[in-house]
Design goal:
The protein has one domain. The radius of gyration is 15 Å and the shape is globular. The protein has 131 residues and is mainly β. A four-stranded antiparallel β-sheet has the order 2-1-3-4, with no helix packed on it. Helix content is 5%, strand content 16%. A hairpin with a 4-residue loop joins strand 3 and strand 4.
């Protein structure tokens, strides 16, 4: 959905916008990854400061949380928090995710990789339930 020159429309999300993850939380100290819409190897701007803010300032990495946009889940064992590109937040119970319908949900770190993978597809036809 969120990739360069995307033409994905809401009608293309046949799994349902409430069952499809669009954006996931990522704490600011874990930002050494790329995100959708940025050339691979580039970094996402993640501060509440202006884009002209000096990133060498020690306070720059002290922001409480950011978002990381999921582009593709290609791994056979995706990780919510255990990989350099994984999602992570300051919550002990799990990580916050924004669905494509605008709703937000906390997904437990122990959620099955198959369930997480299904939530990350827009038209995979999977039937999932996450409580």
């Amino acid at each position: 959905v969120f990739h360069r020159n995307s033409r994905v429309r809401l009608d293309d999300i046949t799994d349902g916008t409430s069952k499809t993850i669009g954006i996931g939380e990522r704490m600011s100290r874990h930002t050494e990854t790329s995100w959708a819409g940025v050339t691979p190897g580039q970094k996402m701007y993640y501060s509440t400061q202006s884009p002209n803010y000096d990133p060498s300032n020690p306070g720059f990495k002290e922001r409480p949380a950011i978002v990381s946009i999921l582009v593709h889940v290609r791994s056979s064992t995706p990780s919510l928090t255990g990989s350099p590109g994984g999602f992570i937040g300051p919550h002990q119970a799990g990580t916050q995710f924004l669905n494509l319908d605008g709703s937000c949900r906390l997904i437990n770190d122990s959620t099955s990789p198959d369930i997480f993978r299904a939530l990350c597809t827009r038209s995979g036809g999977e039937v999932v339930s996450v409580d």
